[in-house]
Write a structure and sequence with these properties.
This protein is of the alpha/beta class and 259 residues long. It contains seven helices and ten strands. Helices cover 24% and strands 17% of the residues. It is elongated.
Length: 259
């Protein structure tokens, strides 16, 4: 497979050969599996001692002629805390256990849970190659975004010196008709999610892949070096297909690294 190499003005200079990674047979099932395995969650867990931060008397005595006994009271033998008393009459309330109001949870999440899952090397290679193929496959892009685009888009190293405004003008001419889908947009979520810590939604936007010795800082798109590429970069939701462009050196490095 060949791709047209473009300069900083958007004009094609020559055609280059793409590595076999971009013509790899699509395996969406393996891609989804590796994506789920690499997905990292912030460790969550309950605080040690949560729900037991007060004085409760533990298992109450249930025998005759004993102080603070529950014998003859008609109450269950659960840990209780004392609100008040009048002589030998106590104002108890169940505490600490999961079935009591304000008590600890029965099975809280454990912060020490292992978040890492092992992945076979062959499956990882298949998933990465499926991700590369998805960035240039017209069917995947049209199914995901509802728009088709002429892919792949490969630039030479001269684009790295462009300013943000000039670079966006280059993208607008290279991705005719889909430029609005390339930029990252942050919107307010509709519904109750706003009250549950996820007020904003943000799309992925364009992925610009650089070689390991190249740098570029552009706000509004994702830039990543080949050595830092992950499945979640090529397929943010585990489904193949994402608008992406590459530098000439990045294409060569991909062919060498992901054989």
């Amino acid at each position: 497979m060949k791709a047209e190499l473009r300069d900083k003005s958007g004009k094609g200079t020559k055609y280059i050969d793409l590595p076999e990674n971009f013509s790899f047979p699509m395996r969406a099932d393996v891609l989804q599996k590796v994506f789920e395995a690499q997905k990292r969650k912030q460790p969550t867990g309950s605080k040690y001692g949560a729900g037991a931060g007060y004085s409760a008397s533990g298992i109450l005595k249930h025998r005759r002629h004993a102080w603070k006994t529950t014998y003859g009271k008609g109450i269950s033998r659960v840990p209780r805390k004392i609100f008040s008393r009048h002589g030998a009459s106590f104002n108890w309330a169940g505490a600490t256990i999961a079935s009591a109001r304000g008590g600890r949870r029965a099975h809280p999440p454990k912060a020490e849970e292992n978040q890492f899952k092992k992945i076979n090397k062959k499956e990882l290679r298949i998933a990465m190659n499926s991700g590369f193929a998805g960035t240039i496959d017209k069917n995947c892009l049209e199914k995901k975004y509802g728009k088709s685009v002429n892919h792949p888009v490969v630039f030479d190293s001269s684009v790295l010196k462009l300013k943000t405004k000039e670079f966006f003008s280059l993208l607008k001419s290279s991705f005719d008709g889909v430029f609005e889908s390339l930029l990252q947009k942050k919107t307010v979520r509709a519904g109750r999610g706003k009250l549950r810590g996820r007020k904003y939604k943000k799309n992925s936007g364009l992925l610009f892949v650089l070689a390991s010795d190249e740098e570029m800082k552009i706000s509004g798109i994702d830039t990543v070096q080949v050595m830092d590429l992950r499945v979640r970069d090529l397929a943010p939701n585990g489904v193949p297909g994402r608008f992406a462009c590459y530098t000439e050196k990045a294409i060569k490095e991909i062919g060498e690294k992901f054989k």
